[in-house]
Each structure stands twice: as C-alpha cells, then as structure tokens.
Amino acid sequence: MDDSRKFDDIIEQLQDKYTTIGQDTNDHLHGLLHSKPITYWDYIQTDALLNLQIQRTTLPDEMVFIAYHQINELIFKMILWEIQQVAEEKELNVAFFEDKIMRVSRYFDMLTTSFNIMREGMSIEQYMKFRYTLTPASGFQSAQYRMIEFASTELINLIDYRFRKTIDRETPFEHAFEHLYWQAAGKDYKTGKKSTLLVNFEKRYKGDFIRFMQTYNTKNLWSRFKELPVEDQKDESLVKAMRHFDHTVNITWVMAHYNTARHYIESGTGDGEATGGSDWKKYMHPKYQKRIFFPELWSEEELKNWGEHI
Description:
The protein has helices at about 5-20, 25-35, 40-45, 45-50, 60-90, 95-120, 125-130, 145-150, 175, 195-215, 220-225, 230-235, 235-265, 280-285, 285-290, 300-305. It is mainly α. It is globular, with a radius of gyration of 24 Å. It starts with a helix and ends in a 6-residue tail after the last helix.
C-alpha cells in the first residue's frame, strides 16, 4: 500500500471515529496544527511526581520512607486497574482471567521483595526518630489496599472471624463494615470506642468504602470466577494462579511487611508500639485473622494451618 493510500485510510478512520461521537473531524485536525509535540517529562508528569515527597523532618532516611510508600500506592493503583478489568469484562474466559490474576500476583511479588528497601535501607536510629512525627498516621490507612481486598473476595471473608456466623448477604453493608477484620486494630468491641487512627480513616474513606463494597459485592474476583463454566473453574492453571495470588497477598506479602515492622518496632530503641497505636502483631500476622480470599480453593488442612509455618 503506497503512502497516499495509507493517508486516505487514516483520514477515513478518523472521520468514522469522530462521526460516531458527533464531532467534526476538521475541528480536531485543526487542533493538531497548534498542539505541542509530547515529551517524556510532560507525558509522565515527572516534575509533579518528584515534588510530592514532602519531609516533616531533616532526617535523610525519611525520604526513603515517603518515596517507598508512594511507590506502593502507585502499584496498588495498577493492581486495582487490572482487577477492574476482570470485574467489567463481559466475555470473561479462562485465558483473560488467568492473565490478569498473574499480573496482579507479579505486582505483589515485587512489593514483597521490595520490603528489603525498607528493612535494610533505612537507619533504625533515624526511623525511630522521624516515626513519631507520623503519629497517629499508619500504613494501615491505605485506602487502596482495602479496596483491593473488597475487589478480590466475598465480603464475608473479610469479616472478623469472631462475627462471621452473625453476618450474611442480607446484612446491611454498614453493619458488615463495622465488623471487618481490620477494625480490630483500632476498636474495642466491648465499648465500641475507636482509636484516632480508625476515626480519621473512616472520616475520610468510609463513604467511599461502602460504595465500593456495594459495587464489588457481585463482581469481585471470586464472584466472577464462579460465573465461569464449571469445567473452566477446574482449569489447573487458573486455580494455580488464584492460589498463588491468595498466598502471595495474604501470607508472603503480609509477612514481609510484618518482619519489616518488627525489625524497627522491636529494635529496642522505641516503645514497641506502632505509630497508629494498633495491636500490630495480631492485626498483621496471617495466622490470627486468617485472611483468605478463596477458601474454597484450599484444603481443610491448608486452611487450618494458614500462616502457621512461616
């Protein structure tokens, strides 16, 4: 095909594109005459990105802490982007599902290994100083991570194990929210009193969470998996991918986080408490809450020993 024919084909495709949305193709072509050529820094928004690391102290290693957590949030955004595609795919099939699950798992694999940056890449002495300027904030307050959980599994699997028998699909979302497993990190269930950590978190995100829970109630990863034909649900590669995702998120990554926190909090140079004041060991360690996205894909023995042998 000669260049003139290629040009005509492109123009024709552009006219079809803009006609479909009720736009004048000539207007858009005129706009191109005045548009600036794109650069890497404009496309990536490098200047804006590199100006988001605002330290609260003069301690150099605080920059490591801030940048690392911002990178985590960017990765969480990518994970949610992949899960959303599974949630909204109209013609869901095994190949598409497995590809997205493995993408998400690779992101979490990367997050798991990257904890060495935190564990080995900061001075304990510096961290134990600048951490006090974070109080009462905590990584616990990552809204995107909570959304990843909501989008991955049935809501009942995120309820505190002590209350699962009293909650089902007919339970109002507001009530279920008050009994999520991570509420235990900042709530006294006997008195109903919540820590400042939890109060601030809910004030900012509770409404968003309730809406998100409603949205993914019927299109989370497990719900979409159960929509596949029965034979597809037995596909070994897909089941293996889902088990890998479940184990990576709820054991491997969590334990890397747990061990990093312990490295600093139990260093002997602080008070042994998390910045948000939570019971961080029982909140984080998988053997206590047994966070499992796809319990039906694990044996009774595996469920019983979840998080024990690590």
